[in-house]
């Protein structure tokens, strides 16, 4: 495939200006491991300049309708450049081309939904006159922007997760300072170029690239930033939470998602869905299926089907349309996954598929005979590995699913309404997906976890709740 990148060196985007820095970080093609471009490394002064630019931009009116227009235009431009940007994702993430195209289309939709939501921001009437002594008062609330929002995003879905912060952030009337993941910043930079072309006022979106451990510290130290919205690992989420005092923080963190396959489930359908959602993007998805609990009565048949579906997946060059699974983000991550699987096997787990690493690739792997204390069950694998276990009783499987410090989403295959209702009540997650795996997400739904999976919701409408303040106005006559 041709290298479709327009430039091989990219600058920071601050106050509507692109500035190249002397210090650069290479961005690798994750399949070939070649350097495809360099990104500028922001310094503390750049962080502070972007905060000033973001604050200044807030002084220029940017009406909800203007936000709608800019976001709609950006969504259209993104679709116009679908192939180019998808090819960037193929290279910088190692994401198969079909999935990469899907990510660009999703990102355009996220901006479109954000545009629509920009027109729907509203407060409430508050019946203060109902309180004794308040008969001559009236009250309303209005939603005001929080101000300057710092958005920090992970490597795995680098365009759409950026849109999930930039879209609602701008729609709600804020200025956004974006710090994309260093491994995959190019798609975020191209998105900023698109916003520039779409007519976004200067300073409303600023992009700072470089190492998160450095820039993150400068961002959290800057007291002029009003809110932090972070998607990434629990470790970094906790660091941000710990260093931002009483300022607003929304955290979308990790998970070790479970999916239950009940005795009445469509065995072939659920096995194929589980195989797809365990391994897409090489398992580097926060709602990737990591733990499957199958009712004893159908376990053997389900496993047979899932192994068959897994063995049919093609691992290889992400630019090849027939590839299902590309490389992991870095060889050290593939080695970590290899070590966890080997450790599980040494502790008694049985390999049913995969279990092999070749450089940056890890084969899609199914383990059975697992114990909940194994790393592949207890921790977030964030790789193409799934642990399949059995259960007999409903309460037993609910307990197994809840035996996790995480709680983002779970899946449940059943047509038994009574069990589905019970699971909906008892399973400790932000979202339970009935008759599908944990790996379902669209932009209209509230998305976010409980327990160590985070606080706050995404989905443009819900993220905008987080990114606005509810201000009360009381009138006395
Ligand atoms: P990560 O936490 O390593 O990095 C995420 C971002 O934080 C990057 O931009 C990075 O540069 C930045 N960062 C690093 N150190 C920082 C610091 N000290 N202060 C501030 N920012 C810092 O995560 P990752 O490896 O890119 O992504 C994988 C993780 O993201 C997994 O745990 C996954 O579950 C999670 N994730 C969650 C969701 C969700 O919606 N809940 C979605 C996607 C990924």
Description:
The chain has 477 residues and is α/β, with parallel strands linked by helices. The chain folds into two domains: 9-253 and 454-476, Aldehyde Dehydrogenase, Chain A, domain 1 (3-Layer(aba) Sandwich), CATH 3.40.605.10; 258-442, Aldehyde Dehydrogenase, Chain A, domain 2. Helix content is 38%, strand content 22%. The protein has 15 helices and 25 strands. The strands form seven sheets. Strands 15-18-19-14-13-21-22 form a seven-stranded mixed β-sheet, with helices on both faces. A six-stranded mixed β-sheet has the order 10-9-8-11-12-24, sandwiched between helices. Strands 1-5-4 form a three-stranded mixed β-sheet, with no helix packed on it. Helix 5 (160-171) crosses helix 15. The longest helix is centred in the first third of the chain and has 22 residues, at 97-118. The chain is globular. The model has no long low-confidence stretch (mean pLDDT 97). The structure holds nicotinamide-adenine-dinucleotide. Belongs to the aldehyde dehydrogenase family. This is Aldehyde dehydrogenase family protein. Residues 18-472 form the Aldehyde dehydrogenase domain.
Element layout with pairings:
Layout: E1 9-10, E2 12-14, E3 17-19, E4 24-28, E5 35-40, H1 44-57, H2 64-80, H3 82-93, H4 97-118, E6 125-126, E7 137-145, E8 148-152, H5 160-171, E9 175-179, H6 186-197, E10 205-207, H7 212-221, E11 227-231, H8 234-242, E12 248-252, E13 258-261, H9 267-279, E14 291-295, H10 299-311, H11 331-346, E15 350-353, E16 357-358, E17 361-362, E18 365-368, H12 375-378, E19 385-391, H13 394-402, E20 406-407, E21 409-413, H14 417-426, E22 431-434, E23 450-451, E24 454-455, H15 460-466, E25 468-476
Parallel strand pairs: 1-5, 8-9, 8-11, 9-10, 11-12, 13-14, 13-21, 14-19, 18-19, 21-22
Antiparallel strand pairs: 2-3, 4-5, 6-7, 7-25, 12-24, 15-18, 16-17, 20-23
Helix pairs in contact: 2-4, 2-6, 3-4, 4-5, 5-15, 9-10
This protein binds nicotinamide-adenine-dinucleotide (NAD).
